[in-house]
Amino acid sequence: MTDDANRLALLTAKGVAKRFGGVQALSDVDFTINHGEIYGLIGPNGAGKTSLFNVLTGIYVPDGGEFVFDGEPLHGLKPNDVAARGIARTFQNIRLFANLSALENVMIGRHVRTHAGVWGAISRNAGTRAEEAAIHKRAYELLEYVGVQKRAHHLAKHLAYGDQRRLEIARALATEPKLLALDEPAAGMNATETAALKNLLAEIRRDGTTILLIEHDMKLVMTVCDRVLVLDYGKKIAEGTASAVQNDPKVVAAYLGGDVSIDPKAH
Amino acid sequence: MHSLFDVRRNPKLAWAGIVLVGAALLALPFVIASAGTFWVRITNQAILYCFLALGLNIVVGFAGLLDLGYIAFYAVGAYVYALLASPHFNLHLPFWIILPMGAAVACMFGVLLGAPTLKLRGDYLAIVTLGFGEIIRIFLNNLSQPVNITNGPQGLYLIDPFRIGTFNFAQQETILGLDFTGPVKYYYFFLAALIAVMVINMRLQDSRIGRAWEAIREDEVAARAMGINTRNIKLLAFAMGASFGGIAGGMFSAIQGFISPESFILVESVMVLAMVVLGGMGNIWGVVLGAVLLSFVPELLREWVGPVQTALFGRPLIEPEVIRMLLFGLALVLMMLFRPAGILPSALRKRELEVVKT
Prior knowledge:
The structure holds two protein chains of two kinds. Chain A is an alpha/beta fold. Helices cover about 40% and strands about 25% of the residues of chain A. Chain A is built from eleven helices and ten strands. In chain A, the strands form two sheets. In chain A, strands 6-7-8-3-9-10 form a six-stranded mixed sheet, sandwiched between helices. A four-stranded antiparallel sheet of chain A has the order 2-1-4-5. Chain A is globular and about 60 Å long. By secondary structure, chain B is mainly alpha-helical. Chain B folds into two domains: about 1-35; about 40-265, no CATH class. Chain B is built from 13 helices and eight strands. Chain B has helices at about 10-35, 35-60, 70-85, 95-115, 120-140, 180-205, 210-220, 220-225, 230-255, 265-280, 285-315, 320-340, 345-355, and strands at about 85, 90, 155, 165, 165-170, 175, 180, 260. In chain B, the strands form four sheets. Chain B has a two-stranded antiparallel sheet with strand order 1-2. Chain B is globular, with a radius of gyration of 21 Å. The interface between A and B is large, with 45 and 30 residues.
């Protein structure tokens, strides 16, 4: 890899593999995400997209291969270490802190970038008070940023579905990630909410955060993603710009089933 | 209750409230003493239970880790105090050295219990902690041979009371015409310590650490993904909870003057857990209320059950001891049916109800 490419690359995956019993969830997956990109990850159900997320964020240990993030390998790191390095994620089946308020959810996201310990908490010294005030302020800003500030004091579980998705993004952003990994953020959203999400993603990218996006909403993927990686049965079957991938016969076959020889011009 | 003590929002009302409650708490032992010194002792025991319930609340209420062996830390604190301030080893260290030592040793045991159980939750954790509680008790029972450390089931006696110079907490004194009995003196010390522990708990809850505990309780996977080192934060919960148990144990040793493994049986763990759950898990005021209620109600029932039966039926039909626990159990069942979140539910649960109403 040339120096130029190295400077561009934020995350590089080399030959990543993961097996669960008899199922090869991921085999030999390679890809590179550049700084400032919105990188799509698509594939039929069970293709290994979420497994890739879990291996990347340290929830599973890969059987082979490695990730290099921001110039350093992520090998053997625990999920909290990965978050500290600068990868934040959301979950396909929303995992908010359900019985805490929206604001507290985002405040918890600040944990990894703040330092107060037991003594600070008990003594409430000037440093801790300043830090708490900053956490509070930042959490509010992020709620505004994603547009759920009106629900700041509601319990996370009482928020509308779309708001929960956005709250999860705010919580992830609170960790100051370099790479934001979103697992189907548009799932269950209506057209208006999806449009708002699209704007939000563009804004996050403009503000300097690279995004890795798993999504089933093809319209969204095709309009926001710079490049797309397609997985099928744990293997990479295509990578490239949205339009190039869309017309790839292998991708069409993976989604529609049947033979690779289907002529995309036939319909 | 919060608005009454909210100094920032309504300073006049708040200070008036604090002064009133303070005066009531200061006068309390003399009022109670008129019914007998026995009731002052019960009050002191109730404060110790508040300590225990607040400590357990960190583990169960904040971090969501079900601990059924919590009384073991109370035992550790009690034995550390007793061994270092009794004729058993002929050591008589001052209490202000041994109480922190008891807390430190209990804290160590907390980490010792926490470390192997980091991956366990719910029922599984409950079973392991229950076993741990029993192990400690059985050790205390049997560590009289080959070297006599704990004096086995006979327990340790003639434990030193708190002493500062010539001021002895166990001696009766008359100051300004008021009769200060031993238990009354201890009451003031315990009350001050309880207020300190409550402030510490409130500050911990409303801090970065407290939020991390709550995050683990709500969703451990998400907590880790947000960069929370769940291992350290959980160990911290065990350690903090255990320390409070250890201090309470030392205070227990000092007021009782005698301890044996029998004081630290499983039922005690269950009792402390019941206080936390009944009062309102996660809410500090609720937990204190739960501890006070569960300390006094059984004693009041012990007093009243006999006379009430005699008045109604001419003679006691059922033994007071039996009916006392029967009524107590019934009260707990009814409580859980009608107020499952506890008498004073945590602020979050209250907020939850408000949202449902609108």
